[in-house]
Design a protein that fits this description.
The complex is a heterodimer of chains A (325) and B (243). Chain A is elongated, with a radius of gyration of 22 Å. With 325 residues, chain A is mostly helical. Chain A has eleven helices and one strand, in the order αααααααβαααα. Chain B has 243 residues and is of the alpha+beta class. In chain B, 16% of the residues lie in helices and 20% in strands. Chain B has six helices and eleven strands. Chain B has a three-stranded mixed beta sheet with strand order 10-1-11. The longest helix of chain B is centred in the first third of the chain and has 12 residues. The termini of chain B are far apart. The relative contact order of chain B is 0.20. The chains are: A mainly alpha (325), B alpha+beta (243). At the A-B interface, α3, α7, β1 and α8 of A face β3, β4, β5, α2 and β8 of B.
């Protein structure tokens, strides 16, 4: 498939935003059971605002993918059948809940304002945050299922696609949260950083699993099934036109074989070992520079990872476009 | 229920591209138009087409065979491109099974083209909406046309009648009979899309002559040549007399 920049930015940016929100809520729930000290409302409000900003940035990027962005509102119509439609609904829902979560923190409201006395401090933010977590995981699911649900794109049609989108989003979000906590000068740096390392290592396992799986795919379609002729030797002599068409542009990545091979190693290094080392240095050495480097490396690596994700998918329609003529 | 479809006979397709050009001509000026082109006479021409004719070589020299292969939307009975459309712009008509795109609802996200294993949907680079074969829906119901012209433009253009058009759900229609009796098959059956369009395979007429048909086993003495010609008044007998 041809990797579109708009979709690469959409999926990576919302991944960071969702991961950041999950990091904030994790910290808050640890505080709720007395495992972590309390944070200022500004910390949560600013964090939630940043998470929303990442989602907004992703949403803006996604508009560049559309031929008619002014009709994008129509995309919510077919949520019963289309994962893309479900994502179009899940994204603003998650965004809205994150915003409300931040706003409630900022205003310091709790359920007592609604006349419900629970006796738990910060009960309203915990409640809104829990809804936000559900929406966030729903959004991960919708985003990944857009790709995983196309059964003949065999590189994508796997639960690993959903797992990778989720775990990579969480890893990059926690890495950003570590940097954010360091900038805010809170004691959460170790907490976020530790989880960022764990999530990054978990993502390494799941991403390597999908690379391994994809290296051994047996394609169900062949030129034989594509034209329905039973012969072991079939070659295309003409695709029907001399120059390019939508079919030759949209479904081939167009990069050189060498670059395609390099990208895999670039992202494997930038997304996993580099941030882990830099996170470790940043936590132990209390260095904001190392943490900035960790996030920058991981995000750049994720752009390469997403590029590779798209480029690696082999669409069966390509069987019809093997030879110009 | 009606399911209109094309049946393409690979046995007689000569790969002339008449269906491609007539499709483009009709549809660029019809209700599905226009089908934009870029640099049509330039160095790197590109454009939007509903139909393509491709050529494949089967086998290895000297035992090869050239297969010309017209490819357009197969109007699947279970079209994977329809449920993925987020806006409902891509739909399958319940009354005749034609898969269409509502250009006014299409947001140009290209997801349907990803979801089609056959690569028969093309984005119009200027109108920025997804386009595909309409089975000439603006022709086939046009009562202003003579009845025998109410067929897709590609079918009318084909000089060898390699393209048949009809209702594949009607068991007695010409297309159903052709599929049933000439070995019609669907493309990429592995994805369960149940294409309505079918292809008829290459069919060769072989005659097989056995040795016993060359040797005259009814002539045990191997005596060739004129048999005796008895008098006209005598009785004649097959294999014994020349009469």
């Amino acid at each position: 498939m041809h990797p579109a920049l708009s979709v690469i930015f959409l999926t990576t940016l919302i991944g960071v935003g969702q991961g950041l929100f999950l990091a904030l809520y994790t910290a808050e729930s640890y505080h709720a059971v007395g495992l972590l000290p309390a944070q200022s409302p500004q910390f949560y409000a600013a964090g939630a605002l940043l998470a929303v900003a990442f989602l907004v940035a992703g949403l803006v990027a996604s508009f560049f993918h559309l031929g008619h962005p002014e009709r994008a509102w129509r995309a919510a119509a077919k949520w019963r059948t289309s994962w893309l439609s479900r994502e179009v609904i899940a994204l603003p829902v998650a965004m809205g809940l994150m915003f409300v979560y931040g706003a409630v923190h900022y205003m310091g409201w709790d359920l007592a304002r609604l006349g419900i006395e629970t006796g738990i401090p910060g009960d309203l933010t915990l409640l809104v945050g829990a809804l936000g977590v559900v929406a966030t995981f729903g959004l991960f699911l919708c985003t990944a299922m857009i790709y995983a649900s196309i059964k003949f794109l065999q590189e994508w049609a796997s639960p690993l696609t959903v797992i990778n989108y989720t775990v990579l989003g969480i890893a990059s979000g926690f890495t950003f949260a570590t940097l954010f906590a360091a900038l805010f000068d809170t004691e959460l740096v170790n907490f976020f950083g530790g989880w960022a390392i764990i999530a990054t290592l978990a993502a390494l396992v799941t991403r390597l699993s999908s690379l391994l799986r994809n290296a051994h795919i047996k394609y169900k379609s062949s030129t034989q099934t594509a034209i329905g002729v039973r012969h072991s030797i079939i070659s295309q002599r003409s695709q029907g036109f001399m120059s390019g068409s939508f079919n030759t542009r949209e479904f081939f990545h167009g990069a050189s074989r060498l670059w395609f091979r390099y990208v895999k190693w670039i992202f494997l290094i930038l997304v996993f070992p580099v941030p882990v080392v830099l996170l470790g240095l940043g936590i132990t050495g209390d260095s904001q520079g190392a943490l900035t480097g960790a996030f920058a490396a991981q995000y750049t690596g994720l752009l390469a990872e997403r590029w590779f994700f798209f480029a690696q998918a082999n669409h069966p329609q390509n069987l019809y476009y093997q030879t110009v003529g | 229920m009606t399911q209109l479809a094309l049946v393409i006979d690979l046995n007689v397709c000569v790969g002339c591209h008449a269906c491609v050009t007539s499709c483009k001509e009709w549809n660029t000026s019809g209700s599905a138009g226009y089908l934009s082109d870029d640099r049509p006479y330039g160095e790197d021409p590109t454009g939007c087409f509903f139909n393509r004719v491709q050529t494949f070589e089967v086998g290895e020299y000297p035992r090869t065979e050239t297969v010309h292969f017209p490819k357009s939307c197969l109007h699947c009975e279970d079209p994977p491109c329809v449920p993925v459309c987020p806006t409902g712009a891509s739909y399958k008509r319940p009354e005749d099974g034609i898969v269409l795109v509502d250009y006014d609802k299409c947001i140009g996200c290209k997801y349907c083209s990803w979801a089609c294993p056959y690569g028969v949907r093309e984005l119009d680079e200027h109108q920025k909406v997804m386009k595909k074969c309409t089975l000439c829906v603006d022709r086939i119901y046009d009562t202003g046309l003579p009845e025998d012209e109410r067929k897709p433009a590609c079918v009318l253009a084909c000089p060898t009648s390699a393209r048949l058009f009809g209702d594949v759900h009607d068991s007695d229609s010409g297309v159903s009979v052709a599929i049933r009796e000439e070995g019609g098959y669907a493309l990429m059956p592995e994805w369960g899309t149940r294409p309505a369009n079918h292809y008829l395979p290459r069919r060769k007429t072989h005659i097989s002559i056995h040795r016993d048909e060359l040797d005259r086993y009814d002539n045990p003495l191997k005596k060739e040549g004129e048999l005796p010609k008895p008098d006209i008044s005598e009785p004649s007998l097959d294999d014994v007399t020349s009469w």
